[in-house]
């Protein structure tokens, strides 16, 4: 993402920071919480009228959890977010000549882990020496069969013997950073590391040889888009800035908003093109533990090609390229804090 877009992202997050409300000090020790969200859609039609539509069965889920430890000068935050969804449209078999039934398609699959360990420089200060680690991958494999049936699937439903397009650790992105964390209050965190390591990992040779997940490839690709030479890991060194905001509003903290913006510049390749990872969560409490939750994530990595959305193209995509990727999910969530 070009650097001229960064001032807008920083402005939006800093605006939230200025509106932060000072809370009572967080008690020492462990605080653990988790939210589990589900959305289910189902439609069955038997002998449907002409133009009435088709069967649909789908579900989505999200697990959002945290574990925080605070004692004296120590501050350790851990987070986990997994978003997953499947759907099946229609009924019967894929096509004549195939006995495979209409399969479930993957709609979203994203696993995120984060851990930040800080040590307060002064007893009552707002600056921390900090170590920050993040991990991003998928959980289930993804298969594509453009010549049989369009979509992303979690299994080789037609027994073609093809390798998956992606799977756990192929790809994955991991960062490890050492820097300074500034926490002016309980709502805001501003972390900066001038020397941050980042690794794009594709721990599967057949997937890495495609060269679509950001790992280095060389040589001339064959007619199937497979490169003869490739690396499974792309190590990078650069600078990382991470801004976090979390706050509750209205009576009894009925509305909760959290936002985490990560900006990374790779010193070794195109440092002016900054990678962006912006995670947002909006929650409205319906009851004590039942919540309406909206997730909205924006992602850009200058080394990763994504499917370009084009609603005039078949299946809504037109090739691969470097673009901003946006994901939004609405759920009814059950949440508990311990």
Annotation, overall tally of beta strands? 18
Helix content: under 10%
Report the sheet with the most strands, covering strand number, pairing sense and barrel closure.
12 strands, antiparallel, barrel
H-E order? HEEEEEEEEEHEEEEEEEEE
CATH topology: Outer membrane phospholipase (ompla), Chain C
What's the mean pLDDT score? Answer: 90
The main sheet orders its strands as: 1-2-3-4-5-8-9-12-13-14-15-18
Span between termini: 39 Å
Number of structural units classed as domains: 1
Structural class by secondary-structure content: mainly beta
Low-confidence stretches: 17-22
What is the CA-atom radius of gyration, in angstroms?
22 Å
The CATH architecture: Beta Barrel
Note the overall shape. Answer: flat
CATH class: Mainly Beta
Strand proportion: over 45%
Q: How many helices? A: 2
Signal peptide: 1-19
Protein name: DUF3078 domain-containing protein
InterPro entries: DUF3078
Keywords: Signal
Task: Quickly list its features.
single chain, 338 residues, mainly beta, Outer membrane phospholipase (ompla), Chain C, two-stranded antiparallel ribbon, 2 helices, 18 strands, 5% helix
What does it look like?
InterPro entries: DUF3078. Keywords: Signal. Pfam families: DUF3078. This is DUF3078 domain-containing protein. The chain has one domain (about 5-20, about 35-45, about 55-335): Beta Barrel (Outer membrane phospholipase (ompla), Chain C), CATH 2.40.230. It is about 5% helix and about 55% strand. It contains 2 helices and 18 strands. It has helices at about 5-20, 205-210; strands at about 30-45, 55-70, 75-90, 105-120, 125-135, 145, 150-155, 170-185, 190-200, 215-220, 230, 235-250, 255-265, 275-285, 290-300, 305-310, 315-320, 325-335. It is flat and about 75 Å long.
